[in-house]
Structures are given as C-alpha cells and as structure tokens.
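Notebook p. 47: complex prediction with glutamic acid.
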Amino acid sequence: MDEKRKELADLIYPDIKDYTYYEEMYPARNLPEGAEVLRVAPSPTGFIHVGGLFQGLVAKKVAEQTGGVFFVRIEDTDQKRKIENGAEEILNAFEEYDIIPDETVGKGNYGPYVQSERQEIYKSYAKKLLEEGNAYPCFCSPEELDKIREDQTKAQERTGYYGKWAKCRNMPVDMAIEKIKNGDPYIVRFKSPGNPDKKIRHKDIIKGSIEFPENDQDIVIIKSDGLPTYHFAHAVDDHLMGTTIVTRSDEWVASVPLHLQLFQVLGFKVPRYGHTAPLMKLDGDNSKRKLSKRKDPEAAVSYYTEEGIPKEAVKEYLMNIANSNFEIWRKQNPDKDMMKDFTFELNKMGVSGALFDLVKMQDVSKNVISKFTAEEVYNEAYKWAERYDPELKEMLDDKEYSLKVLGIERGNQKPRKDIAKWSDVKYIISYMYDDKFDKNAEKEYQKITDKEEIEKIVKTYFDKYYDDSDDKETWFNKIKDLSKEFGYAREVKEYKANPDAYKGHVGDVSTVIRVTLTGRANTPDLYEIMKIIGKERLLKRI
Ligand code: GLU
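Predicted complex, structure tokens below:
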C-alpha cells in the first residue's frame, strides 16, 4: 500500500475499523436458489406518498414470492429534510398496510437499518477508497464550485466535478495532508475511473436495455457533516445488506452508470435494477402528470385512512396498476389472496407511469368491501367512525341492529357493491335509522308522479296486503297483486309486450313503496329492509 495515502486515510479517519470487519460481520446471505432480496429505502421527510406504498408492495411481493427477504432501510442522511418521528411514521404506514418487512429498525441481522447509525461503516469503506487512491479529499469552497460551474457554462461544457475541472483530483497527497493538518475544511470525493467517450450498456428489469456514457464525475461520497451521499450509501448498504434487486423510482436511472462504477471500484457484486415509473394522474383530458404531493390529496397515504378506503382495496388497486395482467387474474380468481397466489412480474411493470385513478380505485374498493362479512364491515366502519365521524359512531353504537342493516344483501352470490369507503356508510344506511329518515323530505317517485295515486297505492298496500310475517315470495306476490289492482302489469315482461294495456308495471309500484319508506329510489333488497325496520316503525313512516 502507498504509505502516503495510508497516512492521509488515517489522518482523515483515525479510529475507523478496517472494512474487512464489516465484510465478516455481514456475511453473504444464505438463501435458496432464486430467492431475491429487495428493499425500500424511504427518507423520513414527514410525507408518506402513496408511491412509497406502491414501491413497498412491489418489493415485498417479489421477495415473498421468491422465498427471499424484504427489508426497509431508513435513509436519513439529508439532515435538512429529516423530520422528527419520520422513520416511525414510515414504518407505521407499512405496518398499517400489512407490508411487513422481514428486517428493519429493531429486527434483522444486517442492521442498523437507519443510515445515520451507519456512519462508521461508510467511513470504513471511504477509508479503503482513500488508501487505494480511489477517493480523495476536496478542499474546494462553495464559491470555488460556483466558479467552476460558471466557467463550464461559459465554455459550453458539461457541468460537474470531473476531469480537468476537478481541481483537487490530482493534488499531491503531501499537500492534502498538510491542508488537513492545517485545519482546512474538506469533503471526500470518489475518484472516477470513467471515460465518457466510452459507452456502457445496462439491462434494467423494467426499462430494458439502456446505453449510457461512462460516468466521470468525481461525486462527493462523504459530506462535510460526516454523512454519506445517497450514491455512496446505496452502494455500501445494498452490498452489505445483500440486496439482489434494487427497485426504486426512475428518477435514479441517470445515476446507474455512477452506481455501477462505485460497485465495481468497491469490489462489490452489482445488484440488478428495476426502475419504476412514477404514478401518474390525468390532468385535463389528455395530458398526464406525476401524482403530486402538493396538488393531489390522494398522493398522501393518510388520505386513504381519512376517507376510510380499506387497506385491502388500496393494495388491490396498486397491484392492478403495477401489473397489467393482474386484472385478468383477479377475474379468474376472485377469492384468492393476491399476496400468496398471484405471480408478480417486475418486467411487466409499465415503463411510462401507471395512471392512478381514484374513481377506479373506488370501484376496486366496492368489490373488495362486497366480499367483507357484515361483521367486518361493521368493525371497520366503526373504527373509522370513532376517529372521524361521531354521528356515524352513534348510529353504529346499536351493534345488533347495525349488523342487520349492514348484512342486507351480503354474503350471498351477488353481494351489494355500494360501499367504496367507510365515509360513505353514513349516507348509504341513514334511512335505516329513524332519526335520520326525513318523512317529509321531497321524494323522487320516478314513473308514478300523481300524489293522490301514490297515497292510494301506499295506503292500500298497508291496509290490505302488508303482513310482516310474509316470506319473501308471498311479499312479492302481494306487491304484484297490488299492482294489478291499480292497473299496473304484474310482470315487467307483460308490460313490455303490451304497454298500452297498463299504466306501468310492478317495478313502478314497488318504487313508490320503496321511496315512501326509505326516501330513496335505489336501495338494496326492499323485503329485507322492511323486515329489519319492522311493522311499527314502517307505519310511522307513511
Ligand atoms: N432514499 C431514496 C429515495 O427516497 C431511496 C432510493 C432507493 O430506493 O435507492 O429516493
């Protein structure tokens, strides 16, 4: 080893362990053939973007289905953006959505899983690079860097710290030692071996084959605060933690040449990369833009909690837009568990940004909720109401009754699909509660509009036909009889065959009863509704 360089490295990092210590401490993972190790590496900035959940779901899914490992690493090296409890909030969000990491803060053998707690490790590898001459201290002040940039712009050259512009790159080691002893401030830079006239080819799992010029930027690896930059931490951490596939947002694609070079110079095995396109939103009719934390409330994971969209629905929808073949699979396998039974393929992820559509998500949610039992709907709606809607909570406090209400048309072949989110529940079931049902409200009776006729139909029905002990068939036959009595066809078919012979059909008559009793022209099964409300309360409504 070059003695001078060793002296320099020791001067910069005097009490740092040799990197071999960490290589031994974190041996290669012993995993079966084909098992993949994936991670998400969020920064605790206080905002949890639904895109982060998307990333987590994808990484967890691939890890799980290959029998590998999914871990969460907190990237908190940007002290300016870091907020208190940010890491906790991220981990809670993953927990809430059942995207449970195998390893993260507090569990796993490859930690610490928080970058600010790994400073010694980064320094150890930076020291290795310094000793080898693959890194050097840079003394350029911010003003000097500005000046370099200005000169580059004037000369119409690429900006950055590279080649002939990299003033400290070829500084004699002696001089660097002297400056450091002298107390001059510095940071540590990577000494790039790249030649931008040469091209490299990289095969991204999602984006396919991409060609780049080699990197020649001498990027900062350790900042003045002693913390690593993202690039350096990425290489060190994903190496030591044994990541086999790096899935991350495609804003990092341009850094691939640098990252490949870092891995190579550090002597690390290169992971595979899959760069995911951002979630997009339709803006106006034809243009798409990124789902924005500033403009779109639905970009925040907290939005779904507040609206009461169940986590199963959010994940189901995210899987829908992650893999285009999921929708067909779900049609063929309506009751299977997507995490266990669906085969996710990273290379089937879209290259150009999946469209994130709240309306579609709610359709998915209606389907998901339709499969819940009444008890599940009750529990989830109640939990939501406790937090966000005291009025709904009060309605649901009568559990026995509410379970009946929520159980209407549920658990059968064609379950009701009207609830997309817990915040819908209050409106959807309100007419089942006497204090919410407004007897005198303006009602929309649809086909039959004559007030007198309506009153007569309802009165006749209750005087002559209605019997609360009737079974469903008898109940319906009586409505048919009632229809006939008033000149409406007993069957829709009959009416359609001979429309001039009737005033309308049984549907129009039952609508009159439905609207009178519930205030709504559309409800689930009227027979069940009437059974649950019961005679005494029904009579009060007319
Ligand atoms: N902390 C980086 C980010 O939030 C992580 C990128 C990566 O997954 O490597 O963008």
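Notes: The domain at 4-17+120-276 is CATH 3.40.50.620 (Rossmann fold). Residues 50-65 form the longest helix (16 residues).
Next step: compare against the earlier run before touching the bench.
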